[in-house]
What does this fold into?
Amino acid sequence: GETRRVELARRPERRAMLLARVELPAAPPLTVACMHLSVDSTGHGPAEVLHAAEEAVAFAGAGPLLFGGDLNLRPARQPEAFAELEARFGLMPPTAPGAIDHLLVRGARVVDAPWALPAAARELPAGGGRRLVLSDHAPVLGRFHMR
It folds into this structure.
């Protein structure tokens, strides 16, 4: 239905979020927010994720929101950031205590909480016995139900 790119940071590295409103046949439009945030050592991660959540929630309005990507935040190390994402924006649950890749949802029921697939799931056969590695992160899946 609509897309928007939001710049979240320019320094120490440029960070952006892509927002897409996906029209669904038997449910309200779903807003999907995908981002790659700054690493923990910069100290910018918690502020970036909260800024991203504000932008995503504003774009989604009252509709359901799937918010995720490489947040570079671990719930075990930055529990306050995840508590604030839940309290202020209704975004939950994080993937795992030590994970940096997350799918958080608002406005949908969690059927299967987000989980990371094995590292081998990010590889595809490339012919000649070679493998194509799609990412340096394992894919994260979750199942959610919307009415």
Remarks:
- The chain has two helices and nine strands.
- The radius of gyration is 16 Å.
- The helical segments are 45-60, 79-89.
- The first strand starts at residue 2 and ends at 9.
